[in-house]
Here is the input.
Amino acid sequence: MYSFRQEELLQCIHCGLCLQACPTYLEEGNEASSPRGRIYLMRAVAEGRIEWRGKALTHIDQCLGCRACEPACPSGVAYGHLIEIARAQSEHSPARPRRQRVAKRLLLNLMVRPAAFAFTLRIGHLLSPLLGGRALPVPLARLLGVHSVVAQLPPIPRTPGRLSSVYPPLGERRGRVAVLTGCVASVLFPQVNRATVAVLQHNGFEVIVPPRQGCCGALHVHNGFPEEGRRLALHLMSRFEGEPVDAIVVNAAGCGSTMKEYGRLFECTPHAERACAFSSKVKDVMEFLAEVGVRAPQRPLVGRDGKELVVTYHDACHLAHAQGIRQQPREVIRGIPRVRLVELPEAEVCCGSAGIYNLLQPEMAARLLRRKVDRIVATGAEAVLTGNPGCLAWLAQGLRTLPRPVEVLHPVELLSRAYDAPHTGR
Here is the structure.
């Protein structure tokens, strides 16, 4: 089991600069709902003064794990690592009802198996009229410890066929890359993977898509099951290691942040060096394109009024806070002909999705979604762009009832439209 290192806990000087960066503190105004307060609880557990039960357990559960506190911290506290340890400990706490732990594990194991996840969603769509539009059957919602589930079942796109294993570069060849297809993302947003491949091709890269990739382990690691996360990570690495590539390109912020931190996940294990070597090649797709330089697309995009297309950008938490990638997506978006980027107020505040947080903490997730939707609407944008599948699905739910529709896209989808030419692989 994970254990705290005293020096990591003592690194927090309790200055409070993290408070205004924390979404749950902004909503609650409660010290225990802040990173500083949660670290204090972690210290109390590590020193044997309290156990993970009651309100202490509740405050850890209510953390989004968005890591917005990390760039705000002058002491460099690795809060993301600490909350993962706390969650791993809390899942083994006697105070955690066994039925909740089992149900959460079942949910996670379902989501990381694309075929089973897709089948379940299709069944859910058929049954949803009988469930009053809820995303999960009420018994499962009760097992997970939530009183209601507000998330609607996301539609499954009918994209024909699977991705091929190899896609040739277009124009002058610039290199060879591999692409992560993901688990949840491959079911809910296959069009993002196709757009990623097409954009990389247009930029002169041969694209490799290793088969049977499975899950990167992020969902399990973030939710207190590091052992399962490591098992999934080992399988993923084995699928990519046979292909000599310049980079492993990822279009999901949560996956990318975990894959870049495999060295820490496998610290003090026989796989540590291997994990570090793998992580050194991982690049977010926007990060990669900004580094290599984007070939200018020729097709201008047009808004509803026939003029420029106005868009805004929501920073996915694990892209901005965990990976420090903020300006690169904006640079790429601004380079698309006739696209005007309007900055989103509170762009770096979590939308409330946070993996499976919107299922486990639906009330707080809904409050954060309303806050985000209000700010998106205020920009007047026709589309909101973001780089994580959870954000894409959650924002789409919040925006779908607006009288004036706002499209939700990954930035790479918008760039693919500007290139406007799909290509087939082999």
DSSP finds 23 helices and nine strands in the chain.
